[in-house]
Amino acid sequence: MQKEPMIYRDLIYLDPTYTSQHDLFESLFQQLYEKGFVQASFLQAIEEREGKYPTALPTEPFPIAIPHTDPEHIIKPFVAVIRLRDKLLWKQMVSEEVIAVKAVFLLGFHHHSEYHIRLLQKLMDLFSGTDFPDQLLKAENVEECYRLACAEIGNLE
Amino acid sequence: MKKLIVACGSGVATSQTVASKLSRLLKERGCSCTVEAVDMKSLDRYLAGPDVAGYVYITRPLKDYKVPVYNGIAFLTGMKQEEELQKIITDLKR
């Protein structure tokens, strides 16, 4: 099975503040684009996708969002981990009711692959009764969070 | 063989994750049913196909799809998963 690095130190964001979902997407896009992870078309694509098919989930112990868009807008696959300082309002998948999310996992999947599916499954499993969410909240710096994310999300066998 | 259709915006990521999980759960319970992930654009075409046993949604259903519908979020997050799985299994055995 193809295994790719998906977690990057410089795509771990601890406690940034954003005024809105749009603000978050715009800010992340600038950085992702400059670092060569996404195409110029990414910002519009992710906002359209999120508007049409929202991605917040009422996970425990805190809600998360897993925005993603079509593979053609991605250059290099990644998962960006954003632990928000202040919760951000986000529409939920299916119900489209607004919920306040504490973390965002921006998924940059660039092609159909079994590996990406397992990675998303792993991420969801981590929010089904493991101590990963608490550890994510407690991580004191990027390095700690990076190691946690690599160990739990990015290191699939 | 009976077929369940899962759809999301692109037919990758969420729908495939739900399809693979649901497929595994059904197999474990001895249900012979395939689960297929498709994108929203081709949903109607797939639902009109033969042997379709239901539609597993992970985006807001917009109309009456004329087939049984199930909440796919349960299989993504694991919340209320058993409940939704039982519903599918009961319907498949009908």
Automatic annotation (TrEMBL), chain A:
InterPro entries: PTrfase/Anion_transptr (IPR016152), PTS_EIIA_type-2_dom (IPR002178), PTS_SugarTrans_NitroReg (IPR051541)
Coiled coil residues, start to end: none
Domain PTS EIIA type-2: 5-152
Domain of life of the source: Bacteria
Pfam family, one: PTS_EIIA_2
GO molecular function per UniProt: transferase activity
Assigned keywords, A-Z: Pyruvate, Transferase
Name assigned to this protein: Phosphoenolpyruvate-dependent sugar phosphotransferase system, EIIA 2
Lineage, broadest ranks: Bacteria, Bacillati, Bacillota, Erysipelotrichia, Erysipelotrichales
UniProtKB/TrEMBL annotation, chain B:
Gene Ontology terms, MF aspect: protein-N(PI)-phosphohistidine-sugar phosphotransferase activity
InterPro entries: PTS_EIIB-like_sf (IPR036095), PTS_EIIB_2 (IPR013011), PTS_EIIB_2/3 (IPR003501)
Keyword Transferase on entry: yes
Keywords from the named record: Transferase
Domain PTS EIIB type-2, residue spans: 1-94
GO BP, sorted A to Z: phosphoenolpyruvate-dependent sugar phosphotransferase system
Origin: domain of life: Bacteria
Pfam families, per the entry: PTS_IIB
Protein name as annotated: PTS galactitol transporter subunit IIB
Source lineage: Bacteria, Bacillati, Bacillota, Erysipelotrichia, Erysipelotrichales
